[in-house]
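Review form for a predicted model. The reviewer records the input and the model, then writes brief findings.
Reviewer: anonymous (R2)
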Amino acid sequence: MVEVAWSIGAFGVSVFLASKIRRSVGPIMHDLWLIALMVCLLIVIPWLACFPMLLAIHLLLGIGFSSVWIRSETRFLAICPTQFLGRFRANSLFMTNLIGLIIFAVPILNSNLTITTLYLLLAGGDTGNSHHT
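Model under review:
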């Protein structure tokens, strides 16, 4: 259900942006603020006990991720030479799939790393496992 919430958010913003983007997608500062908000949401996820709230946050994460992704690609594709478009798309998909692989495969390969720990690491939070001397 969490993946469905993410997908619904991503689909909704994709449809909206596909109908709105012409040439310019606006200042990059909007994307940076959105990424900062997503980091905050990722930090909160491990402590959520309310399932509807977890679904709502994943809906927002899907919206944020897709919005930044589409706007960033649009920004780059506007300046990318035609001969490099295929390479750019292949690299973009590779990086996206690699991040997904890390999040879902690492806990299987290393039982000490949980999804919660990975969310915190990806959000830049402290996992509580660091030892300061």
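Findings: The helical segments are 2-20, 28-44, 51-79, 85-109, 115-123.
Further findings: The two ends are 42 Å apart (CA to CA).
Recommendation: see findings above.
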